Amino acid sequence: VADKIRLIPQDFFAELCEQIIQHLNHKIPGINTAELCQRIQTSGIDINIGDLAKIANTLSFLFSTAARNNLSTEELVTTLGSGVSPLPKHAVQVIRHVWSEQGKAIAVSEDAGNMATVGQFVDMKWKLGVAMSSDTCRSLKYPYVTVTLTVADPSGQITDKSFEMTIPQFKNFFRQFKEMASVLETV
After folding, report:
1. Distance CA 83, CA 122 (A)
2. N or C terminus: which one in the chain shows less Cβ crowding within 10 Å?
3. ∠50-52-58 over CA atoms, to 5°?
4. Domain ranges (residues) in the chain
């Protein structure tokens, strides 16, 4: 991971660390690595989303472990310097700054209670479509609903999950949401 961190400019690395801290403090639902990766690539850096996700997971683990162990800034920096493949100087400087500014807030929120390990719902989008024809069938006229769910997994990675439903499936889906809403109103 240290070799991949060397590729990331300091400003992008700082932004990634800030997003991770905000996620651990439950201020944002997750880290949008796809968007950040695209911006890094646009700046001319050759990095893929898988590598950036590994870096984000590693930093998230680093910050949450440091919070659980109530490490001071100097203890964290000393620990980072004693690793097998040391982090680049700019990365250690960013981690030092972010931890000294916001590290105690993570320790408080980690003690207050961890998020569930199933992830978090962020957004939902849907659209209605009609399949007019295909290679094998000239006249379909088949309506369907496409739903895209945006979720943040427990590590904070934001992903989109899409699926299609027939109109009867969508009506059942909608009915279940209405049932959930009515139960929530009684709580």
Report:
1. 36
2. C
3. 105
4. 1-105, 120-185
What global pTM score does this model have? 0.62
Rounded (10°) angle between helices 49-68 and 10-24 = 50
Dist CA 120 CA 144 (whole Å): 26
The CATH fold of domain 120-185: Nuclear Transport Factor 2; Chain: A, (3.10.450)
Contact predicate 94/77, CB 8 Å: no
Q: What are the tens digits of pLDDT across the range 35-50?
A: 888 999 999 988 888 8
b/e code 32-55 from CB counts within 10 Å (16+ = b): bbeebbeebeeeeeebebebbbeb
**For the segment 133-144, what is each residue's pLDDT rounded down to a tens digit?**
777 777 777 888
